[in-house]
Amino acid sequence: MALGVKALPFTFAAHVLAIAGAIMVLVWCLYFRGGLAWKATNKSLIFNLHPVLMLIGLIIIGGEAIISYKSLPLTKQVKKIIHMILHAIALILGIVGICAAFKYHNESSIVNLYSLHSWLGIVIICLYGIQWIYGFVIFFYPGGPTEIRSESLPWHVFFGVFVYVLAVANAAIGFLEKLTFLETSGVAKYGSEALLVNFTAVVTILYGAFVILSVLSLPPVDHHDDFSYSEI
């Protein structure tokens, strides 16, 4: 099922929101939170890697991987490779982002996996990995039989969209959770940092919405080898 509108305007809006979201999370972590580091005396710098990598990696690059089928005027095979590579990058950055959160907790003597955000995060990254491996084996190499590919396709699309929506929702929960901790520690509830974090969460949700709208919209052209996301 597709909406009766072209996908291209939605993909352009998604790109703009992606740039805005990336800038906002970097401003937050670099300017307000002091920077990024894998090793540091100030352990908060280690944690700062988490929101940056999860938003830019799993959400933004993952979203770009999804809408690549509706935004790139290329052959299906080329788009399939781009789709796969972008998702691999998103998955790797997501794993490193989660490792950064564990590293911060361990070095700060904070227990792990105590919140809904953390539980969902582990589930999402596992599902994301399963989705990528299955897609690679069935749709790319070595490639499954035509019947299995045909039967798997709608489930692959549905499962991918479901995991992505879950990731966007969990990112919003993560922004809320971190901002709540910061406000408890003295950050002003109506200060510039709090507003920036909230607006970053809003931009993240809007970006996810435009990614889904792109998936549900019509491809740019109607060639036999069209740009339909469903032809993975």
Determine Rg (CA atoms, Å).
Answer: 19 Å
- Determine the N-to-C terminus distance: 16 Å
- Which class best fits the helix and strand makeup? mainly alpha
SS element count, helices: 7
Mean pLDDT: 92
The total beta strand count reads 0
CATH topology: Four Helix Bundle (Hemerythrin (Met), subunit A)
Number of domains: 1
Structure description:
Mean pLDDT is 92; it is low at 222-232. The radius of gyration is 19 Å and the shape is globular. The chain has a single domain (3-218), classed as Four Helix Bundle (Hemerythrin (Met), subunit A), CATH 1.20.120.1770. It contains seven helices and no strands. The protein is mainly alpha-helical. It is 75% helix and 0% strand. The longest helix has 39 residues, at 146-184. This is ascorbate ferrireductase (transmembrane). The chain crosses the membrane at residues 12-33, 45-69, 81-104, 116-141, 153-176, 196-218. Its EC number is 7.2.1.3.
